[in-house]
Design brief:
The protein is mainly α and 146 residues long. It contains six helices and no strands. The protein folds into two domains: 58 residues, no CATH class; 64 residues, no CATH class. Helices cover 58% and strands 0% of the residues. The protein is rod-shaped, with a radius of gyration of 31 Å.
């Protein structure tokens, strides 16, 4: 009886071609045993099942639908103000990038609740003085084309 190659072991296969080659090799070995009226070793079937399972998983991953989504939102002045308050409260430098990142993170964590109800950001943010916030808005106005 011929010895099976390393491609018949699922953990040795790195891509679909290796897996298919391993499956073909095991099927040929099984057919050879049947033609020669010999019993088929049980590990042939175990290896075959593992290879078929791995192939199904690889195909499922390959067939997954890949979607890239761009979401555009309009931010009102109150939401911008709350993002600036957040940056000031956490001593984050007031740059356009940091403010946009703050808004994105807030939306990712709280969904549309933040854009629909900006006052829901946090009660702690109210400790930032309104004069400081107004000055920051004036300084950042040009970056946001306001």
């Amino acid at each position: 009886m011929n010895k099976l190659s390393a491609y018949t072991i699922a953990s040795n296969c790195t891509d679909s071609i290796d897996i298919k080659d391993g499956i073909d090799e095991i099927n040929e070995a099984i057919q050879m045993c049947i033609k020669q009226n010999r019993t088929v070793p049980s590990y042939y079937y175990v290896r075959l099942e593992k290879l078929e399972t791995k192939l199904k998983k690889k195909q499922a991953i390959t067939n997954m639908l890949k979607i890239s989504v761009t979401v555009r939102i309009t931010i009102d002045l109150l939401t911008l103000e709350m993002a600036i308050r957040f940056c000031l409260f956490h001593s984050t430098p007031l740059t356009k990038h940091n403010i946009i990142r703050t808004i994105k993170d807030a939306i990712a964590n709280h969904g549309s609740l933040i854009t629909n109800y900006p006052e829901k950001w946090s009660e702690d943010l109210n400790s930032v003085k309104q004069i400081v916030v107004q000055k920051a808005i004036q300084d950042i106005r040009q970056d946001f084309n306001l």
